[in-house]
Each structure stands twice: as C-alpha cells, then as structure tokens.
Amino acid sequence: MNKFLVADFEFTVYTKPTGRPRGFFSEILEYGWVVWDEEQKTLLGEEQSFVKPKFFPKQAKEGQDFSMITQEDLKTGIEYDQMIERLRKIYRPGETYFVAWGDSDWHVIAEACARYGVENPLQPCDYLDLSKEYQRFFNLDYRPSLKNALDTQQIELSGIWHTALDDAKNTAKLVKHMLNLGWQVTPYEERGYL
To answer: How much is the pTM?
Structure first.
C-alpha cells in the first residue's frame, strides 16, 4: 500500500463524573483528513467538515473549550452517515492506510458507528497509530505528543492545534518525514495496538 489517509477527529468529551448524560459516548463533531500518495509523492486531496451530533447535541463545555467548536459551527455540519459515506469514497480497504496520532480517533469512530447503526468501513489491518510507529521507528521508551514529535524533528507546525484539518495536515507532514527517513510500516501481525 502506498496511500495514507491521515485523519483527525474532534469529538465530545466528559471527564467529570457529574453532568455526564446516561449512556454517553463521544460523538464526532469535526473531521479533517488528507490523502498522501507515497509512490507519486503527491497530496491527493483534503477535506474538513463539522458533524452534527445526534444523541448528545449539546456539547460539553470542556469539549467546546478544547476544540473551539461552537453550537453555530455544528448547525452547519453534515450528518454522521454522510461523513461515513465520504470516508468510503476515499478509503479503500487493503489499499489505503488509515493513519491517526494515537488510538482515540479509531475507538471513537468504531463506537460511534456501532451506536449509529452504521457499518464501520475501516479495517483494523489498515490502521496505523502513528504515535506508536514513531515510538518504534525512533526507538523511544515513551510516546511523545504530536507537537513534541514535530518539534523534535524540526517540522514547522502549521495552523491551529485541535482543529481537525490542521492536526491531520501536521500528522501528514510527520508521515512524509518518516518515510523520507526510511520508515516502513510495521506489519499488521507485529503492530499489537488494536
């Protein structure tokens, strides 16, 4: 595989035990992704949109503060199943790596698909937790934050932290950098992060 779909999702969060709605799960509020073709050394496209939450439409205050997403932004969003259809158009199982920094994006989309009753198009064998790949490639004892990894590799940060498309673009910069340094994707059988 030589295509990398590098994604980031912003989603609702509740970390405090009080005020948490019964049955709460994180709903995606914004997505951003870029598609990188390593063989052609080219960016194939990028996309960003807000997503309307269905089950918990009033986002937790801490989620709003963290992601800077407002209720007005959410009114302009698309439905969750529309986001999944857009994902299906660019992600091809067995042909495209789905890349995110950490595993929270993977778990949020998997649980949301189950709760929405939508088939999750993502295959575990195509998923790359870039923070784990980075840790292995640079032989680290810890997993750094994306910002720390970019700083360490002297890659210029662009955009605003915790906005989905900017985070996806910055993660894609790190993917390209690691590939240029000779990184090869860890075989699925050896990954062990799902």
So the answer is: 0.92
